[in-house]
Design goal:
Number of domains: 1
Oligomer: single chain
Strand content: 5-15%
Shape: rod-shaped
Distance between the termini: 129 Å
Largest sheet: 2 strands, antiparallel
Strand order of the largest sheet: 1-2
């Protein structure tokens, strides 16, 4: 063992066998040295514990961030999956309404044409919000 290490081992033994009243078995200079050594050891352990605690906090924070990112990703993916189906359903519903309106108009038109026995010519367009009709009636 080196001389420095032997003194530290001896200092620790002396500190551990110190009297309960706080008096030192050796002279005042050695007591000061022992106190400084004890303070260094305590501060080193405090530093080690703080480093460990900070690394644990950083790890926990990173895990929370990853979890939040995964949840956000899942929600966004669900929205991306659902939106096209909703839009398709809305477009289909709008088309079916326009189709039903066209069928009703055609039925009334055919009935009226059969009643008047005239020649009816025309065309219509079904648009998203309204129905355009151009009718030309020729009576014979």
């Amino acid at each position: 063992m080196s001389g420095f290490l032997k003194t530290k081992v001896m200092d620790i033994r002396v500190v551990s066998t110190a009297l309960p009243e706080g008096t030192c078995q050796v002279d005042n200079e050695q007591c000061v040295t022992l106190e400084k050594t004890a303070i260094k050891i305590q501060s080193w352990w405090a530093w080690v514990i703080q480093c460990w605690w900070r690394s644990l906090q950083n790890k926990t924070l990173e895990q929370r961030r990853c979890l939040a990112l995964k949840l956000y990703k899942c929600r966004e993916w669900a929205v991306v999956k659902v939106q096209p189906h909703i839009r398709m359903w809305q477009a289909r519903r709008q088309f079916l309404r326009a189709h039903q309106a066209a069928c009703i108009i055609q039925a009334h038109w055919r009935w009226d044409a059969s009643q008047t026995r005239g020649l009816i010519q025309g065309h219509y367009e079904v648009k998203a919000s309204r129905l355009e009709l151009n009718i030309e009636i020729i009576m014979t």
